[in-house]
Amino acid sequence: GIAVTAVQLLNAYCAFANGGYVMQPYVVKQVVSSSGEPLYEGKPHVLGRPIRAETAATMRLLLEGVTELGGTARRAAVENYTVAGKTGTAQMSVPGGYSSTDYWASFVGFCPAEAPVFGVIIVIQRPKQIHTGGTVAAPAFGRITQQIAHYLEIPPDAMEEP
């Protein structure tokens, strides 16, 4: 198996959103004083470009299909926005192999799909009963992404019901 952190996985998918560029992740965008004066501002920094822009565009289209009718993560759809992403369901490692009862369920994606502004990853450890990413993590992604899009005042890019 291959182990990656949630931030590493999100950053890999954001390379599709960023035209093939891998960016240095940062958490804090800006810190301001009580008077509104900027004290710190996080800046985008390119680490490299492991994939061509055309490949990234193709991947965005394919990942958008995951959240559309017939996709494995229809529950990740966000009303009035296109989203792109991928489900994940992985057995947890145990000494000597992998568990047959314990899983990681995940969904990683970005919004809006055509002109991405932000990415989100949801990882759920040991979900109960149903353990697939499309059933467990995708709905949380959809709800959180809807709130972020509204908070950031991103104009809707798809005026239809998910």
Question: What do you see in this structure?
Answer:
There is one protein chain. Helices cover about 25% and strands about 30% of the residues. It is α+β, with helices and mostly antiparallel strands. The strands form three sheets. The protein has a three-stranded antiparallel sheet. A two-stranded antiparallel ribbon has the order 1-4. Strands 2-3 form a two-stranded antiparallel sheet. The longest helix has 19 residues, at about 135-150. It starts with 5 loop residues before the first helix and ends in an 11-residue tail after the last helix. About 30% of the residues are buried.
Task: Kindly summarize this structure in a few lines.
By secondary structure, the chain is of the alpha+beta class.
Helix and strand composition category: alpha+beta
Q: Summarize the amount of helix as a percent range.
A: 25-40%
SSE sequence, one letter per element = HEEEEHEEEH
Spatial strand sequence of the major β-sheet: 5-6-7
pLDDT < 50 runs, ≥5 residues: none
Write the layout of secondary structure elements.
Blueprint: H1 6-17, E1 22-23, E2 30-32, E3 38-41, E4 46-48, H2 53-65, E5 84-94, E6 97-111, E7 118-125, H3 133-151
Antiparallel strand pairs: 1-4, 2-3, 5-6, 6-7
